[in-house]
Amino acid sequence: MESLSYIVPWVLASVIAGVVVGYSLGRSRGKASDQELADRERQVALKTLVEILQSVERMSGDVESHSSEIQQTADHVGAMQVSGDMELVKQALLGHMMTLLCSNRRLQDDLFYSRYKMEEQTQQLDLVRREARTDALTGVANRKALDEKLRLLLAGWSREQHPFVLMMIDVDRLKRINDAHGHQAGDHVLEKLGQWIAQWLREGDFAGRYGGDEFAVLLPRTGLAAGRELAETICSRTAQQASQITFRGEQVSLSLSIGVTASAEGDGVESVIGRADDALYRAKRAGRNQVQVQEAAASPAAAPVAARPEQAPAAVLDSGTPAAPLCQAPGPSSCAPSANLDTGSVCR
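RE: above sequence
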């Protein structure tokens, strides 16, 4: 009976927690305007549910072990040879043991049901949390999750000098794609590009949609040279696989401009994004379809720009489509040094 007095409060607590979490989940969904609070509530509730599930799992094992011990004792008592008044005592003792075993079985059933319901709610809560951090169109992380990851990497860099690379990726002339084929074609390009980037990254890398036609990639524990190499791979592979993108039977041209920078002493969110953004817009001005690198100590050729300039016009065919991009397919992917800047490379 002591085991029951110890276990029952835990069962009641787990059931109550399940009800509270269900209420919190419903309330957080109903308050879309208070997204920050809802997200914190989901994280706390998810952590609480996991802890309770672990406790329920332990209790279930304790109850099963306790039941097994009672059954063994009952078998031992039942095998005893007694007579007279002791037989009455034996039968009364066996009756109490059977009652206790039945209570334990009901308790195990309750624990199993509570665990099932909490696992169900945990999965639902985790799904809602992941949806709240994922860009619906591209399938990569949304801006909120991207900002959180960047702050986390900056904290790791500041405290333990764990380097990282930030890569800003822009789809060249997406507006022209929208004008020529419609906005659904532009959405199709962004969706496909999001899938490709996620496939080409290494385990532990992080991709997110920065906004509009821009993606951002974060490479933890990575130096600038390795980050530049991966950026060139993404640029070249995109050019090679661009022929796979068709919309209503028409091929949609696609190329990327990419700016790359690495963490530096004293960096904050604005400084690291600013350098990657500067490199990206140098790639745009240099003719697009290429990778540009911006180091922390800016050289005169890589001086930061005051504002984002208008995109320089490119050679356009009579049909309104841009001339063939610098990254060509088929053929092996490679990026040759730019003739304009020794910090950049043109993908071929």
